[in-house]
């Protein structure tokens, strides 16, 4: 009897504890929502009700890879300045680039977004201002016009191998010219950047497959995107990192160990490439090895995947618009008598090609999301609105570039908008900034244009291309994380006779 009474009392105590916990949690949630909606410094900015009240809707959409798509409709409904979380604003304003990143602005990057691991060495992506300037100066020598001109033979060799491998592939009785161009562009850009950073190719083109070091990059990038979103819940992020540390750490540490070993080999020689200046500085003990490894990884990922993405996008859009494809093919084939004529200098003179690339980056920006910055102490005026300090602010590329307030026929592929066509005279083309602006803009912009122009010119010079039916809706169902999660882009190639 006494045991039954004791058990009954314990049960009641347990129920009471659960009830108290539930009431406390519910009260806390309600209190947080009321504060965020009616008392928060950002309470006057418009946005979806649940998004203004809680961070969770933002995080869920980000993890699903749908946030970059939803942001356009949110801006269309609520305007150019939208509150997308209790402490975050999204800007689709023509002056936002300058107000946040231009001139002498001192908006810091939000560390929790860029750092996946707690003790991760800094790199050029998220280093503090003074350290970033130092890294930028060192890396700048590798991306100077002079260095890029001297590296042209290395670039041309990788692209030449792409062309030869695709011609061989077309001869295969099993392939019948059908290729996944998204994969082949990745093979090319990874091999190329490996050569320009580590001094050796990853042999993806030779093997028609990803190198064991390259393949995990896509998984690590996806993991990083999830961890970046969970940075708004540090306790939850830390818990996940502890639970999945064996998996996450193994992938990241293996990636870093391989990079460190290759970089150590690279340091034994002097050559003209993207990292020689950084290695020279390291010999003076100004930059630690961990930071060199991190910067090398950033250069490899940022210098390969994004370029391959634009090449995939422009190929898909051109093949989906045969009239545009025919015009660009004519421009390329009339400009060059042989492949040897296709040089960095000459491809820079192809006006319609540049227009096609610009229009591709408008419709399909290689980084479609918003990269959060933190408003400095004292607050700032952004897009004509005062924004309090410590607010997260971002410009969402895909949403901005498809906004009808700034572009005529915003969802149509119209390269002529960049060639003075009067139909597009009202376009605000200065809002198109896929490489960002200011002191932290993309250091690899010139290299990216060189690669994209040379690859596209040599592809169109060597092949006729037709989009396979299975890839007709290639862009429709993609996921957007920090980068795009791309399905295969199936294209049928017909080699041209160059005799």
UniProtKB/TrEMBL annotation:
Belongs to the cytochrome P450 family. This is Cytochrome P450. Its cofactor is heme. Heme binds at residue 442. Keywords: Heme, Iron, Metal-binding, Monooxygenase, Oxidoreductase. The lineage of its organism: Eukaryota, Fungi, Dikarya, Ascomycota, Pezizomycotina. One of its GO terms (molecular function) is monooxygenase activity. InterPro entries: Cyt_P450, Cyt_P450_CS, Cyt_P450_E_grp-I, Cyt_P450_sf, Cytochrome_P450_monoxygenase. SUPFAM superfamilies: Cytochrome P450. Pfam families: p450. The keyword Zinc-finger does not apply. GO terms for biological process: toxin biosynthetic process. It comes from Neoarthrinium moseri.
């Amino acid at each position: 009897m006494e045991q039954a009474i004791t058990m009954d009392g314990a049960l009641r105590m347990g129920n009471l504890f659960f009830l108290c916990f539930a009431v406390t949690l519910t009260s806390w949630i309600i209190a947080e929502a009321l504060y965020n909606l009616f008392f928060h410094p950002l309470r006057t900015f418009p946005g979806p009700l649940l998004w203004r009240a809680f961070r969770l809707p933002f995080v869920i959409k980000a993890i699903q890879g749908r946030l970059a798509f939803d942001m356009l409709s949110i801006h269309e409904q609520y305007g150019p300045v939208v509150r997308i979380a209790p402490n975050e604003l999204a800007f689709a304003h023509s002056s936002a680039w300058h107000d946040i990143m231009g001139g002498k602005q001192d908006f810091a990057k939000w560390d929790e977004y860029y750092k996946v691991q707690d003790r991760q060495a800094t790199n050029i992506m998220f280093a503090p201002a003074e350290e970033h300037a130092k890294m930028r100066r060192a890396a700048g020598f590798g991306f100077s016009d002079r260095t890029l001109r001297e590296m042209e033979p290395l670039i041309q060799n990788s692209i030449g191998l792409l062309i030869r491998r695709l011609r061989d592939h077309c001869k295969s009785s099993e392939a019948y010219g059908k290729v996944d161009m998204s994969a082949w562009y990745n093979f090319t850009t990874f091999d190329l950047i490996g050569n320009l950073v580590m001094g050796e190719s990853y042999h993806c083109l030779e093997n028609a497959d990803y190198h064991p070091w390259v393949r995990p990059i896509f998984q690590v990038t996806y993991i990083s995107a999830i961890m970046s979103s969970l940075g708004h819940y540090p306790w939850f992020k830390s818990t996940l990192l502890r639970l999945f540390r064996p998996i996450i750490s193994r992938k990241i540490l293996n990636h870093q160990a391989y990079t460190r070993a290759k970089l150590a080999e690279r340091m034994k020689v002097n050559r003209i490439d993207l990292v020689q200046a950084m290695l020279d500085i390291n010999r003076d003990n100004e930059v630690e090895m961990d930071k060199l490894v991190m910067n090398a990884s950033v250069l490899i990922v940022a210098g390969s995947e994004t370029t391959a993405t634009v090449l995939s996008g422009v190929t898909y859009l051109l093949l989906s618009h045969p009239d545009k494809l025919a015009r660009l093919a004519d421009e390329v084939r009339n400009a060059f008598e042989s492949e040897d004529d296709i040089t960095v200098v000459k491809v820079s003179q192809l006006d319609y090609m540049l227009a096609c690339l610009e229009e591709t980056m408008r419709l399909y920006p290689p980084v479609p999301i918003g990269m959060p910055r933190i408003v400095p102490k004292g607050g700032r005026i952004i897009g004509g609105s005062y924004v309090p300090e410590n607010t997260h602010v971002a410009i969402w590329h895909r949403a901005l570039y498809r906004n009808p307030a700034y572009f005529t026929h915003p969802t149509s592929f119209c390269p002529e908008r960049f060639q003075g066509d009067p139909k597009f005279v009202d376009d605000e083309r200065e809002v198109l900034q896929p490489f960002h602006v200011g002191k932290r803009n993309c250091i690899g912009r010139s290299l990216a244009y060189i690669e994209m122009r040379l690859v596209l010119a040599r592809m169109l010079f060597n092949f006729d291309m037709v989009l396979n039916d299975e890839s007709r809706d290639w862009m429709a169902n993609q996921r957007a994380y920090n980068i795009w999660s791309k399905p295969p882009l199936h294209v049928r190639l017909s080699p041209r006779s160059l005799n």
